[in-house]
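Researcher: Final request for today, and then I'll write up notes for the group meeting. The sequence and the SMILES for zinc ion follow.
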Amino acid sequence: MYLVIRCPRCGELVLANTIYKTRSCQNCKFRIEIRFIKPLARAETPADAVEVMKKLKAEQAGDKSWKPNFYRLR
Ligand SMILES: [Zn+2]
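Model: Predicted protein-zinc ion complex:
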């Protein structure tokens, strides 16, 4: 399963595969421990995860008071 998580250091959206325990942020290189992070979204396939991430980024860009809504794909 794939998770869309937010980097606790810089706020960047990061795509994580649940087979791994940690994921490095592509923006600030912070190593995120996935089990401690509440995912913004979950997806079964990488393609779905990328779509959800695009949607979240678009929402974030369009709304300055954006907050995680814990949107779930399924
Ligand atoms: Zn980061």
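Model: Residues 3 and 16 are 5 Å apart (CA to CA). The chain is about 25% helix and 25% strand.
Researcher: Thanks, that's everything.
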